[in-house]
Amino acid sequence: MTVARTTTTDPFDDVAVLCERLKLPEVARLAASWAQQAAAEHWTYSQYLADVLQAETTARQTRYVVSHTQMAHLPFHKTVDQFDFAFQPSLDERHVRQLLTLQWVDAAENLMVLGPPGVGKTPLIVAMALQAIAQRIPVYFITIQDLVADLRKAWEDNRFTTRLGQYLRPRLLCIDEVGYLPLNTLDAHRFFRLVSARYERGSLALTSNKGFVDWGHVFGDPVLATAILDRLVYHSTILNIRGDSYRLREKRRAGMLGEAAAPHAGGGTPMTVGVPVRLKRRADDGFCALAWSFRTVINHRL
Fold first, then answer.
1. What is the pLDDT of residues 184-226, one digit of tens each?
2. DSSP secondary-structure letter at 204?
3. pTM of the full predicted structure?
4. If DSSP codes are grouped into helix, strand and coil, which group holds residue 83?
5. CATH of the domain spanning 76-271
6. With contact defined as beta carbons under 8 Å apart, do 169 and 138 qualify?
7. For residue 130, what are the contacts with CB-CB under 8 A and spacing of at least 6?
8. I need a surface site. Which of 138, 185, 227, 240 has the fewest CB within 10 A?
9. Where are the chain's structural domains?
């Protein structure tokens, strides 16, 4: 096969033109200087070619991570290596690092991180999100208040189905601050629609400062809360952080808090995980069996 060649004086001008056509900016940037180095150090042709292509691959991955991290709307960037496991001994570091393999995302399972404010729930799911982006897994991060407000507006504008579909696209959807504020009935039902639509289709990573026993109050309806939890927990990993607040620790170190703000002996208060007792006793409406089976699933997962 005859290869058409350009007629420029410098052959690396030809390389630059061809790299532009092939969208290889890093190869274009490095080709000439690395060719001089290769000649001086007696690289083989294959070594030179492999090195410039590896540089292009690395640069392309870096650009991907930067752009998709921005599109994911992460509130900050922290990795698991920046997490202080010594301050939160209730967390098994080996277990958390195993979660970084993202096998649970491949299986369309969920991650639920529970604990009081300030114990590191959000940094954990941000770390999972960053790892997912590095593996080219589509990610989106949003607080539940922003999520339900967006779905509410879409409902009012008669485009709810379209907007809901956009939240089904990311393979990993991170929802922060579940439980910090209660939801009204319509918002809670729209959230249920989202959870139900993603069930066994895509992964959710959620944080909550409420134990499952309190989710009936969060969603304004214990039956709806049970339906939501049933879909979230069935294929899930649950991390229950029982510890003190990082933010309060830093304030104490800075002398901004007195002894009254010091933690009680033995660390933070453990979070109660379970379903409302009243649900377990409502045999007359058919939810008793569901609640009991749901409690069994939770206890098994923990």
1. 999 999 999 999 999 999 999 999 999 999 999 999 999 999 9
2. E
3. 0.78
4. coil
5. 3.40.50.300
6. yes
7. 69, 74, 77, 78, 79
8. 185
9. 11-71, 76-271
